[in-house]
Design goal:
Elements lengths: L4 H19 L1 E5 L2 H5 L7 E2 H4 L5 E5 L6 E5 L2 E5 L5 E3 L5 E2 L2 E4 L5 E8 L2 H11 L6 E17 L10 H4 L4 E17 L10 E8 L5 E19 L1 E5 L16 H8 L4
Parallel strand pairs: 1-14
Antiparallel strand pairs: 1-8, 2-7, 3-4, 3-8, 4-5, 5-6, 9-13, 10-11, 10-13, 11-12, 12-13
């Protein structure tokens, strides 16, 4: 039976609409609170993440360092400060991905701290209740990052692991900043506010951003109006107690060590 041209046109339009919707969706594996209580076993393959975006942040199986995705390429910043390519077969317990469209570009952003940078971003957002992906390429006056070491079972809560984080400093370095700003109502699911990772231009260093200073940096923003949460399908997640409020723990984990 032959289909009429109108049928094919409708199918093509539906496919195009679905693809466009996917580009404006944040894709996430597991809620952040699962990571906070020590659910570190990876359940999703890194190769599968690439179907849902070309930039992102996260971690790897057993909390083995920081995951940074730039231009569809996956990098791992380990506790030794070195950067390694990540094979598609690697597993992740927590990752956030999207397709980056440069819908908004802020020109010549200057900030003396991460807090100031975030305040500048907040003043430029069209809404505090949407999700935003961020990317900035250029020279950074200063970036302070961290990574954490691969864990062994029985897993400790993330707030305990973070006390042993390795901290790295970069001065007058070219690189790429990527990450997300999530609205306040995602408590327990994602990180309310900013979650940023960094890679040097030579892909030799980086990590989870604790602080930065920038002068005249252009920043691309991409708003998203939906989030897709893929829950772990097996392992410790099924028995984890996620009933409590862990926002104080999250703030301690996300902040720079004193």
């Amino acid at each position: 039976m032959n289909r009429c041209p109108i049928t094919f046109l409708v199918l093509a339009l539906l496919a195009a609409a679905a693809q466009a919707a996917d580009r404006d969706t944040i894709y996430q594996t597991a809620p952040i609170d699962a990571l906070l209580v020590g659910v570190y076993d990876g359940d999703y393959a890194v190769g599968d993440l690439k179907q849902h975006g070309d930039m992102g942040v996260g971690t790897l199986n057993a909390l083995d360092g920081e995951l940074v995705c730039v231009d569809g390429r996956m990098f791992q910043v380990r506790v030794d400060g070195k950067v390694y390519p990540v094979p598609d077969s690697a597993l992740t317990p927590f990752a956030v991905m999207t397709w980056l469209d440069r819908d908004i570009v802020l020109k010549a952003v200057s900030a003396t701290s991460l807090d100031e940078f975030c305040r500048i971003m907040d003043r430029s957002l069209p809404s505090a209740n949407l999700f935003f992906a961020f990317r900035a390429d250029g020279e950074f006056d200063y970036v302070r990052t961290r990574s954490v070491s691969k864990q062994q079972k029985p897993y400790r809560p993330l707030v305990e692991v973070a006390k042993e984080q390795a901290v790295f400093e970069f001065k007058h370095v070219k690189g790429t900043l990527v990450g997300f700003r999530c609205p306040a109502f995602v408590k327990g699911i994602n990180v309310p506010g900013y979650h940023l990772h960094f890679l040097t231009e030579d892909r030799q260093g980086g990590g989870h951003v604790l602080d930065l200073r920038v002068t005249g940096l252009d920043v691309a923003l991409d708003p998203s109006d939906s989030i897709y949460l893929a829950l772990p399908r097996q392992g410790d997640f099924n028995s984890a107690d996620l009933s409590g409020d862990r926002q104080q723990e999250l703030r301690r984990v996300e902040s720079a060590p004193k």
